[in-house]
Amino acid sequence: MKRRILLVEDEQDIAELVALHLDDLCDEVVIASDGYEGMRLAKFQDWSLIILDLRLPGPDGLEICRSVRRERAYQPILMLTSKSAELDRVLGLETGADDYLTKPFSVLELVARVRAIFRRVENMQRAPKAEQQAPTTIDTGSMTIDPARREVKLNGQFVELTAREFDLLEHFARHPGHVFRRADLLDKVWGYGHEGYEHTVNSHINRLRAKIERNPSKPEMIVTVWGVGYKFSGSHVSNSRPHSL
Ligand code: CA
């Protein structure tokens, strides 16, 4: 599959610098220099990754992200923000970006993120073909997680998750009772253990809780272990074949 990246960025020098560095990693980088063009390209073409600047002339990065998410929950989206105060909205349930970088960012850091995203997406696409290692369905009683179809059912109802929310939930459910630090989760689920980005984990945990917990403010499945991290509390998990991620 061709790797195509859409970069929506109105600052021309940043856009060109980023495109130059991403060139080796992919087949095509398309730059949209305002929100109108960005929205049109993001919605009506297929992309391996969409990189969205938050502040744009026309529809902003949040609007584009929300709009794409409504149609393609699985689309990998990386957001560029200028203030950490904006993070709650960028990573929130409604917007649902997978990842972010705060400006000014290092281009090498961006390249590392993009590489991790491609690695993950391509592993996911390859996985079902290797029948020997086909991951088993996880059944916790109230919830089933089917990694081959990438579907989650809770009390018989499908739960719509982004790719990263799915990966995170699967990782937890494969290791019930195990306490993960935020840095562990960044490393295992995002593919990099960069310090300072633990907020991404917190936000994704909140998003997952909003979708799967009976009462998200009193979580019973993804439990906070104070001062350490999180664990999946699945006392009745049946997981017939162990599978490490
Ligand atoms: Ca901008």
Low-confidence stretches: 236-245
**CATH fold group of the largest domain:** Rossmann fold
Report strand %.
15-25%
**Nearest-integer average pLDDT:** 88
CATH class of the largest domain: Alpha Beta
Order of helices and strands: EHEHEHEHEHEEEEHEHHEE
Class based on secondary structure composition and strand pairing? alpha/beta
- CATH architecture level-2 label of the largest domain: 3-Layer(aba) Sandwich
**Portion in helices:** 25-40%
Coarse shape: globular
Provide the gyration radius in Å: 18 Å
Please identify which CATH superfamily of the largest domain we are dealing with: Response regulator
Major β-sheet strand ordering: 2-1-3-4-5
The small molecules bound here are: calcium ion
What features would you describe in this structure?
The protein has 245 residues and is α/β, with parallel strands linked by helices. It folds into 2 domains: 125 residues, Response regulator (Rossmann fold), CATH 3.40.50.2300; 107 residues, Winged helix-like DNA-binding domain superfamily/Winged helix DNA-binding domain (Arc Repressor Mutant, subunit A, Orthogonal Bundle), CATH 1.10.10.10. Helices cover 38% and strands 20% of the residues. The chain is built from 8 helices and 12 strands. Helix 1 packs across helix 5 and helix 2 runs parallel beside helix 3. The longest helix has 20 residues. The C terminus is likely disordered. The protein binds calcium ion. Calcium ion (CA) binds next to loops.
